[in-house]
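Summary for the steering committee. The consortium agreed at its last meeting that each partner would contribute one worked example illustrating the joint modelling workflow. Our contribution is presented below. We chose a case with several input lines so that the handling of multiple components could be demonstrated. No manual editing was applied between input and output; the record is shown as generated.
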Amino acid sequence: MIGVAPALNGVIGALAQEGPAHAATAAGPAWAALIPALPLLGVVLCTLCAVFRVKNRLPAVLTVACLAGAFGLTVWMFLTTGHGTAVTTSLDWIRFHAAPGHEFVSSWGFFIDPLTCLWMLFVTGLATLIAIYAGEYMAGDAGAGYSRFFAAFNLFVFSMACLVMADSLVLLFLGWEGVGLCSYLLIGYFYKRPAAVAAAKKAFIMNRIGDVGLMMGITSTWVVFGTVEYAPIFDMISRGVDGAGNALPEWAGWVIPSLFTIGAFGKSAQLFLYVWLPDAMEGPTPVSALIHAATMVTAGVYLIARMYPMYVLDGTHWVLTLIAWSGAITALWSATIGMAQFDIKRIMAYSTVSQLGYMFAGLGVLTTTGAAFHVFTHAFFKATLFLCCGAVMHGFAGQLDLRRVSGLWSMRGWAVVTIAMLVGCLNLAGFPFTAGFFSKDMIIAECYVTPGMAPVGWVLLLTAGLTAYYTFRVFFRVFVGPAEFEPGDEAHAHGPAGDDHGHAAGAGTPSSVDSTDHSHGFHPHAPGLAINFVLGLLAVLSLAAAATYFVGGEHGWVGEMVHHSTAGVSGAALPGGGAVHADLETGAPGFLGYNPHAVMYYVSAAVGLIGILIAAFLHGPRGVGGLLIGSRRHAATSRADALLPVLGPVARGAQHKWYVDEVYDFLIIRPIWVIAHLFHLFDKLIVDGLVGLAGWLPRGMGGAIRPTQSGHLHGYAVGMAGGVAVLLLVVLLVAW
Amino acid sequence: MSIIEKVQYIWPEIAMFIATCVVMVLGLSPSLAIRRLCSPVCGAALVIAGLLAVMGPDTAPAALPHLMPYAKVIVAGVGLLLLLLLAGTVDREEESLIATGRARFNPLRTNRAEFYAFFLFSLTGVMLCASASDLIWLFLALELTSLPTYIMVTVSTRGRSHEAGVKYFFLGALGAATFLYGFAMLYGGTGTTDLSGIRQHFAEHGINSIAMLGLLLSVLGIGFKIAAVPMHFYTPDVYEGAAAPVSAFLAFVPKTAGFLAIMLIASLPGWGYGPVAGADGVIRDGLGAGASLPEALRLTLWVMAALTMTVGNVLALWQNSVKRILAYSSIAHSGYMLVGIIAGPVGERFIDNGLAAVLFYLLAYGVMNVGTFAVLACLEKSGGAALQSGARSTGLETGATTEIETVDDLRGLCRTHPAMGWTMVLCSLSLLGFPPLLGFMGKFPLFTAGIAAGEIPLVIVLGINSAIAAFYYLRLVAAPLLEDPSPASPPATPTPFPARPMAALLSAASVLILVGFAGVLMKQSAKAGETVVSPGHTAGRGASDGVAAWNP
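What follows is the complete predicted structure of the assembly.
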């Protein structure tokens, strides 16, 4: 079916051109295909490195070169496309007759609008930076593993580019599955560690649940619109017709969005599907930073933003309401878990789930701008936070327990990490005038503007306080205070005599910073130049992201971008005439009688500061580092310990992640296990038995008639004569 | 038709007969060089007979007007392969004794003249079956095919072959008696022994009970020639007792004669019957009402076919001796081909014509069957349990060699004797009907013709049996190809007759190469399978003179 003759293709293609003109879409630049092609080249090159057993940092250099090229092209694409929408087809991929007079078309083509550009800018940009970081971080694994890591890394960027730039749902699905595969490969990178393998499997399986929804959504789209390409779909939605030209069926407005939402929940770890993301931290930290914090997990947000015209088809918006509530609940739920964890990378993982909840809430309350802006800012500051945690892990032999490391600030060579961490924490906590502050405000404020969504706003506001607390809990425990540490149990690949960091080929950044302190027998191993460079740059970018709020239109640069894309929410796009998304002037509820947009800056700033102060009081060290209210003297203990008995089961529940994994185990895994054993028994006894019988029957028959071949002449003669007689008798009785 | 008119059709047989006489004389010469001319003369006779068959008249006034050239050519062709394979079967010890000077040539102790003469006689009998236009002629032709084989089996080896020969003779006589009785009843029921006369009688007066019984007994008796149930009992014992080249001969020559005879017998009533409600409301067979054999004959053949393939296959599962496996598989293949006879000429296309399928299958089976037996004939081992009985009865020294026998002896053959191993693999796969080998090309039209004739249950039985057959054929494939040589059994050594491996390689090559010429072969067999008998199918077909008159 796929290999239709080219000649036929040409004819069909010519016919297809005569279809309805896609308004407002221009032909895109052909070189856009190079953006996914460069990472694909990286995959090939890294595979070749693996084949030729390259032992140095060549794969990292190649990866950085390819990704930087892709980033450069993305910038160019952004500059040339502006706020327009362009579609470019590189390859006629799938094309067959699905029904009489109807074709299924999915080409290898790209849909370039500002939303695509926004996503691709931070995907390729962050991927380049994190590849530089990983070049040093993974240096201990130089060899086959190193090449494997970067091949999968490139493959991820390729898949992500396909996902984001696709011009049809089928190509999006390909990228969607591709990033899932890469996520699986990279979580399970340390495949000799059972926990990593289990986490990889968990991530893969949980994602499949969401993928079913996405697939069904794509199928439903095909059923309703008769195409899976964006441009015709959006054209039809704007005209309110389906593929046959009739009015859109009632159910299409909620069935398709709900199905897409299931897919988005899986990929973006929302609601009951979040459990895979914290476990995914078993992968190398650069992977956690890029895939499980900055880019891949935002694919769900992207999907909903991309298909937003479908979400606003239904006048009651109940799917969006559902998304808003799911987001808020997820945000609060995972924030409470994050408060009680001790593993700093896990805390960051739960905070990622929590922040994704904010984004979904933003989508649900009709502020795609807020959601996209939060995705954008979060990508930078969360990558920073993860990479800082990675630096700690790297330097302390895998130590991630905040009770065992303290006072990094006062150790040599950790200044950049500490500053970058502080910047990231301020962003995450929503400290005034940071990028995270503005993006979070936009979402919370919008909750109070949208009718019926005020409770969501309160939940999110509470979560903002919790977020500030658990973020600075990490900072106060690990980065300030008395300098103490225990190395982790992980035999960190240090290289012979620890000299491999001195003259690195990877990323082209020889590092000279290394601790000479041997007093503990183990010396913490401060990050090299590459890591420091990336952390510094990311910290600056996290802060600079705030500036985008002030350039461009009403909602900043991101708002401008989103407004000109399919995610743009305008009154005209809403069937209800925009009355639903009311402003304060039309009598919609506000924030305690004030204009939410105006007061939210102060309210959320106050909430964030309170959270930080509580963290300082409970976990801060004595002196300036603890904002003068802290009292911690040791790494392992803090004032918070006294609270544990008071909180009792609540604290225990949060520490045990509210026993969600155990509940899943009991409700899903156990029953399935039992059913599987029953089926196994059925298979063993009945199916195998039948197969065995089928095999045994001819042999048994042979055994039964074998005595007729006695070898005796008279026996044979009697057999022949008797056989003739019996046969004649049978024929006489039956057919004469 | 007088015998003078008939001569134009039987020039191949006449040539073969002349060669037979020459061979009989040559084989008794005291000079080894002249004695050795026997087989070249046989070869030349087969080539000449084949050429004469091709050049002879294309159409004969018979139910199957184009049958003769095709049948005679495939008999001559496979006969050449068999001739290569039969090299050295008789007089091996005798000749070696003479060569070393320990004995002198004694015409009473040599078997060479008789053996090659009987070989030619038997093939002449098959050709005469194809030419038969009379029941007596047909009987004589069938017996001319069989009688020499009894002797050939007996003289082929020392020891077990004597018992096999005696069994074969007595049971063969019982089979011959059965179909002779049938022929007699046909004569009694119709008053003529002329095949076209009987056809005409059936068409004009219907089939009376005596004639029908005659038909059934004829078919059942001829079942002995094709080793069909219930006449199959002798097959494994005789094949096992005879030398491998003679077994290959038995698996092809009498079978071909039998199928030609069954085709002729079945064409007497023809494939034009179907159920018709008589005046009294009873459903009876009526000519022209359908496209099958008369119900009684169809049912007989149906039961024979189903039982034959099933019995052959399930018994083959139990065997460890390759020869016995091949013997049972030979039974099963007869069952497959009976499906084609039952289906009959449904349509003009090759895949709709069951008779064409049978004719094509005979050629395919002949070729691939020679290949498998040739592997056994090409390799021998010294000592071994199989020899003991033979050594006891003949008092020969234990240094004598014996053919390889069991599946274990085939193990690792692809490494130790690559040519033989691969011949075994290819021919076994072909016998199994593995695409795209010749056996698949042969089996496929049997299925399509059966389906076209509406014999769906029988086709299902055929399919199930093909699956069962895979079990033992794949053993014959796996043992040479995948397993290691058995350390227990003594290593096999090639026999000192270069013609035998040549036969093996030619068969294996044919299994592959003939696939490329399958189109031509199918066209020829489709032509040979054309029939003018059944009125339902002959309308509009260019019937030969004198033939159309049979159709009322």
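Residues 160-190 of chain B form the longest helix (31 residues). Chain B has one domain: 3-550.
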